[in-house]
């Protein structure tokens, strides 16, 4: 008995000698992990206890070296030094006193550690951030990987019980490293190349592997709008029994070809024959008037009445892009705002990992769903019908083959407390989508009635909801939701309006009143952040079908986690501006894309192919060294092509673009608020700029601090504790 006690004591004594260093990506995440591990002693830059030292980064501590740090001659910008391709890439600490101090602490801990646990964000960027720090710190002990999809205590505990080997994530690191090197090689070389060749007055022309094709999408759409020539046409309709029927118009050869192409690409691969009936489009008034005259005294006869029952499945769960799209459409939030808000909700443990590109859940989540639903207390009126029942397990929700590292964004079941108003709105979207996934399909009936008069066919369609099913989750008004958990609109879906038709019988006939309405063809709409995100996701292809969109995601440009930053970069470079929700390319942006003749730099489709290769590196089906060799070859070809351009083209200076933007804003303000007479304005105090209203408000990112004003931007009072909220003036 005594020997057993000594053995136990010896084991405990030995255990205290082993020190495990855990490194998280943020101080707040480190605190959550330390709490679970029982580490309570707060030190400078880490938390210690129970055999663990839990430390943190502030996102990126390291970055790739600058050109002159490889070769001093690369410091000066010159065309003769291009392309700049180092024989071996190196990393360095970011030049910041706070970063340098924290790194020295991490380095000291890692040098003495018996084991390191990488607790970085469970994604490509998180893997890169932590591996670079470990490399720079010279870590030489064994490394484990914590891989979790939420920051709840249960998830962290479960993750530590199932730690993985760091080696399992080498392909993820190689993909992240290839992306970083690819961005460096293309960005550094192309930016210097185009600046020196086409810039003026020391203006830098920033070129990026993803930002330039994204800008090209906006410019292309803008030019389509500017060059659009409206075409006049007329719509022939007739009113029969207080119901408006519209003349069926024959489809053009182009429309038929497009329908056939869509059917081939569609996952369902329907082989139904495309019906093409009706009259040719009415493109002149005299033809329309002649048709009206021809039918006005001929009775209208109902020739077909068809009723078709249909079902509509609940909307997909959210991936990051679809959440950003929805928040932009409903609340006007930018993609960057939404990313910060959903990241904050993840760190507050109420939603799962946000940087995901799948709308599916893995089968192992299914047993946890009743508990998650039970935890959504503000939504008890909606979850009550599901309580105690066997939850529906749809293949449109649960599909292991569609989930890789992480599943769709869902609630964790933790109480949603201490959320800002903006966070509440985002959480509400996520929660309702999750609840709706277990509700029955919506059942509806579609009635189509076709009639004719003097050989001309007319059509009307009506839709009637028979059983709303999941739609009750989004119905208005939404009540009994405490703590401000209200709003988002009902799910707006095209063709959703209910129109119950009178009862028509085949063969019935009677008088009618024809009408002829003048119409004009409309140009394509400018991109909003919502539609641009969708275009980036599908490499510029306009796709509504969910299955087809999933297939095209492989070739999307950028990653879900980086697309918001790309759009923000275009704003900062003054390549685009915003008019209401619309994204408009500035003269500089338009001219820059006009200058670039190399399709590799501006084609969304070609960039999508490169993105696909990066994903294949992650899956070990493509070699990282091959990707980088191809990239270097591409950059060399771009340099040669641009240097061969003998024209004297130049881009409008940025100053001109900024002045033009400022004058447009001033003109818009004057138009919105006309000047008052001088006598009336003398007594008034000047108003604070609208942006100053931010000061003192709760931080929309962390929710703990308040907004403070710095020299160039607004920030959060919790910045010392790791909150990264920043809003430039």
UniProtKB/TrEMBL annotation:
One of its GO terms (biological process) is DNA repair. InterPro entries: Topo_IA (IPR000380), Topo_IA_2 (IPR003601), Topo_IA_cen (IPR013497), Topo_IA_cen_sub1 (IPR013824), Topo_IA_cen_sub2 (IPR013825), Topo_IA_cen_sub3 (IPR013826), Topo_IA_core_domain (IPR023405), Topo_IA_DNA-bd_dom (IPR003602). Residues 261-275, 654-664 have a biased composition (Basic and acidic residues). Residues 666-679 have a biased composition (Basic residues). SMART domains: TOP1Ac (SM00437), TOP1Bc (SM00436), TOPRIM (SM00493). Residues 169-639 form the Topo IA-type catalytic domain. It catalyses: ATP-independent breakage of single-stranded DNA, followed by passage and rejoining. Transmembrane segments: none annotated. The keyword Nucleotide-binding does not apply. Keywords: DNA-binding, Isomerase, Metal-binding, Topoisomerase. Gene3D superfamilies: 3.40.50.140, Topoisomerase I, domain 2 (1.10.460.10), Topoisomerase I, domain 3 (2.70.20.10), Topoisomerase I, domain 4 (1.10.290.10). GO terms for molecular function: DNA binding; DNA topoisomerase type I (single strand cut, ATP-independent) activity; metal ion binding. Residues 256-279, 478-497, 502-521, 654-696 are annotated as: Disordered. It comes from the Bacteria. One of its GO terms (cellular component) is cytoplasmic replication fork. Its EC number is 5.6.2.1. Belongs to the type IA topoisomerase family. This is DNA topoisomerase. It comes from Phocaeicola massiliensis B84634 = Timone 84634 = DSM 17679 = JCM 13223.
């Amino acid at each position: 008995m005594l020997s057993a006690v000594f053995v136990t004591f010896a084991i405990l004594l030995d255990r205290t000698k082993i020190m495990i260093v855990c490194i998280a990506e943020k101080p707040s995440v480190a605190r959550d992990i330390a709490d679970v591990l029982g580490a309570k002693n707060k030190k400078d830059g880490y938390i210690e206890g129970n055999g663990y030292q839990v430390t943190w980064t502030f996102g990126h501590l390291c970055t790739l070296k600058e050109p002159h740090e490889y070769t001093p001659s690369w410091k000066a910008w010159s065309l003769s030094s291009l392309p700049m391709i180092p024989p071996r890439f190196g990393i360095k600490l970011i030049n910041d006193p706070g970063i340098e101090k924290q790194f020295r602490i991490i380095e000291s801990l890692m040098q003495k550690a018996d084991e390191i646990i990488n607790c970085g964000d469970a994604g490509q960027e998180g893997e890169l951030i932590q591996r670079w720090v470990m490399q720079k710190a010279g870590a030489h002990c064994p490394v484990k990987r914590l891989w979790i999809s939420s920051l709840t205590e249960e998830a962290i505990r479960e993750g530590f019980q199932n730690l993985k080997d760091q080696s399992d994530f080498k392909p993820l690191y190689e993909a992240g490293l290839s992306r970083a090197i690819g961005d460096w090689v293309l960005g550094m070389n192309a930016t210097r190349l185009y600046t020196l060749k086409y810039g003026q007055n020391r203006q830098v022309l920033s070129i990026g592997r993803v930002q330039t094709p994204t800008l090209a999408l906006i410019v292309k759409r803008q030019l389509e709008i500017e060059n659009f020539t409206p075409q006049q046409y007329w719509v022939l309709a007739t009113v029969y029994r207080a119901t408006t029927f519209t003349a069926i118009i024959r489809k053009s050869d182009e429309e038929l070809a497009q329908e056939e192409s869509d059917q081939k690409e569609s996952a369902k691969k329907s082989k139904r024959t495309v019906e093409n009936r009706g009259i040719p489009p009415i493109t002149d008034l005299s033809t329309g008037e002649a048709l009206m005259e021809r039918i006005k005294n001929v009775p209208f006869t109902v020739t077909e009445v068809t009723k078709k029952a249909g079902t509509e499945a609940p909307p997909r769960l959210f991936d990051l892009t679809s959440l950003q799209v929805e928040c932009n459409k409903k609340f006007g939030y930018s993609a960057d705002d939404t990313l910060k808000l959903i990241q904050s909700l993840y760190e507050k443990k109420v939603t799962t990992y946000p940087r995901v590109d799948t709308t599916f859940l893995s089968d192992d989540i299914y047993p946890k769903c009743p508990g998650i639903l039970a935890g959504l207390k503000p939504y008890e009126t909606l979850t009550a019908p599901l309580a105690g029942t066997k939850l529906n397990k749809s293949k449109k929700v649960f599909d292991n083959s569609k989930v890789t590292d992480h599943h769709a964004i869902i609630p964790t079941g933790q109480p949603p407390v201490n959320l800002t108003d903006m966070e509440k709105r985002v959480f509400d979207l996520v929660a309702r989508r999750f609840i709706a996934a277990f509700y029955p399909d919506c059942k509806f009936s579609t009635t189509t009635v076709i009639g004719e008069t003097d050989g001309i066919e007319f059509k009307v369609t009506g839709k009637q909801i028979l059983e709303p099913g999941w739609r009750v989750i989004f119905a208005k008004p939404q009540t009994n939701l405490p703590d401000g958990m209200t709003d988002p609109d009902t799910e707006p879906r095209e063709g959703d309006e209910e129109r119950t038709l009178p009862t028509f019988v085949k063969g019935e006939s009677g008088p009618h009143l024809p009408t002829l309405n003048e119409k004009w063809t409309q140009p394509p709409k400018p991109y909003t952040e919502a539609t641009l995100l969708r275009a980036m996701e599908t490499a510029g292809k306009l796709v509504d079908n969910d299955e087809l969109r999933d297939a095209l995601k492989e070739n999307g440009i950028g990653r879900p986690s980086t697309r918001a930053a790309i759009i923000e970069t275009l704003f900062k470079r003054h390549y685009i501006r915003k008019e209401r929700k619309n994204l408009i390319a500035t003269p500089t942006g338009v001219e820059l894309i006009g200058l670039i003749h190399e399709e590799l730099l501006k084609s969304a489709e070609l960039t999508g192919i490169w993105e696909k290769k990066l994903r294949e590196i992650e899956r070990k089906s493509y070699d990282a060294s091959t990707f980088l060799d191809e990239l270097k070859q591409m950059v060399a070809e771009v340099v040669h092509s641009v240097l061969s351009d003998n024209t004297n083209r130049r881009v409008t200076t940025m100053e001109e673009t900024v002045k033009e933007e400022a004058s447009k804003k001033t003109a818009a303000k004057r138009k919105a608020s006309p000047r008052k007479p001088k006598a009336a304005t003398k007594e008034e105090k000047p108003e604070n700029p609208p942006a100053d209203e931010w000061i003192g408000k709760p931080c929309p990112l962390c929710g703990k601090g308040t907004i403070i004003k710095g020299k160039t931007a607004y920030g959060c009072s919790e910045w010392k504790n790791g909150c990264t909220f920043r809003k430039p003036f």
